[in-house]
Amino acid sequence: MTTQALLWMSVAPAHLDRVAATLATHPEPAAVVATTGPTNLLAQVLCSDPADLHRYLTRRLGALPVRAVESAPVLLTLKAAGHLTPAARPAPRRGEAGN
Predict the structure, then answer these.
(1) 14-32: burial string, b at 16+ Cβ within 10 Å, e else
(2) pLDDT, tens digit, for every residue of 41-89?
(3) Which domain range does residue 44 map to?
């Protein structure tokens, strides 16, 4: 069974792009997202087991200039991917394709 966790990180703005780009090269993150606020970088990681997650946090992530990290193990996934349905999409604006 895969161990999945959300990693909320605080990274100095001067290092944000480099840390995000480095995380994006690692095989463990399924998603890497820059955000705003006290935690400005989010990664969803997939590891083989809790020990593998621990290794990732302490070795690979620990080697990067991350000020703080909060890990939230995923207990239950209700939906893993999706897209906007036609009813949920905003109507095209005047002058856009289809108008």
Answers:
(1) eebeebbebbeeeebbeeb
(2) 999 999 999 999 999 999 999 999 999 999 999 999 898 876 666 766 6
(3) 3-73
> What is the pLDDT averaged over residues 27-31?
97
- The C-alpha atoms of residue 52 and residue 61 are separated, in whole angstroms, by 12
| Phi, psi dihedral angles at 48 (to 5 degrees) | -70, -30
Both tokens of residue 4? Answer: 């999945």
| Per-residue pLDDT at 33 | 98
What CATH number did the domain enclosing 29 receive?
Answer: 3.30.70.920
Residue the block writes with tokens 């995923």: 74
